[in-house]
Fold this sequence. Notes:
The chain is α/β, with parallel strands linked by helices. It has helices at 37-47, 69-82, 96-106, 111-114, 117-137; strands at residues 3-8, 13-19, 26-33, 50-57, 87-92. It is built from 5 helices and 5 strands; from the N terminus they run βββαβαβααα. A 5-stranded mixed β-sheet has the order 3-2-1-4-5, with helices on both faces. The longest helix has 21 residues, at 117-137. The two termini are 19 Å apart. It is found in: Cytoplasm. Pfam families: RuvX (PF03652). It is an enzyme of class 3 (hydrolase). One of its GO terms (cellular component) is cytosol.
Amino acid sequence: xxxxxxxxxxxxxxxxxxxxxxxxxxxxxxxxxxxxxxxxxxxxxxxxxxxxxxxxxxxxxxxxxxxxxxxxxxxxxxxxxxxxxxxxxxxxxxxxxxxxxxxxxxxxxxxxxxxxxxxxxxxxxxxxxxxxxxxxxx
Length: 138
């Protein structure tokens, strides 16, 4: 068994989370500028056994897909060319940023740390991954 990664894809930066090799625990991994995402993933995949990737599906309350989806689809196409053996999953990411902000605020971090967008992106990716793991069990 290998890890599953989650990516909270954004125009400027992406939050990344990973499971353990047994795919039980989701943990935040890093925040990477979007332009460096493929390089980060190439390095990570060569150093770790990665079985799947979950990419957030950005939708609004009505279920309409956000404009960043065009960029996400290009990324997924590039990812699948580079890593043909790794399965790509999609998961609705509605409210993950709000949930991440809430969890961070409850963690006792300073106000400055709570407003750090990179931290929110990492936690959002972790929430996406945890939701994916929970849905798989059902």
